[in-house]
Amino acid sequence: MKKTCFRLLSVSTALVLLACSVGGRLGEEGLLVQEASAEMEYQGVLELGVLQEVSLHPEKLRMGIFQFIPEETDSYVFYSLSDISTSAFLFNRSGTIVDSDLTSKGNRNNFALECQLTAGETYYFGAQYSESSSQIGSFRVGIRKTMRLSMFENVQNITGVMAGTGKEIPREGDAVYACFQPQGDGYYNIYSKDFCGCQGNCQAGCSCWSGDHCGCLNYLKATVYVQDEEGKLQALYCNTASDTGNGFLIRDYFQKGQSYYLVIMAADETQTGKFQLAVGKDLSEVSLEQLAWEQQLNLVIENKQENLFYKVIPEKDGTYHFTSEGGQNLYGTLYDKNMTALMETDSLEDNINQDVALYGGQEYYLKLSTLSEQTFWFYLTASYVSPDMPLPDDGTGNIAAGGDGNGGAGSEQDNRIPIGELKMAKIPDKAYTGKKIRPAVSIKYQGSLLVKGMDYRLSYKNNKKIGNATVTIEGIGNYRGTRKAQFHIVPKKAKLKSAKRSGTQVSLKWKKVAGVTGYEVSYSYAKKFKAVAKKKTKKASLSLSLKKNKTCYVRVRAYKMVKKKTFYGIPSKVKKL
Question: For the chain, which domains are there?
Answer without folding.
Answer: 3-145 (2.60.120.380), 149-285 (2.60.120.380), 297-412 (2.60.120.380), 420-490 (2.60.40), 496-576 (2.60.40.10)
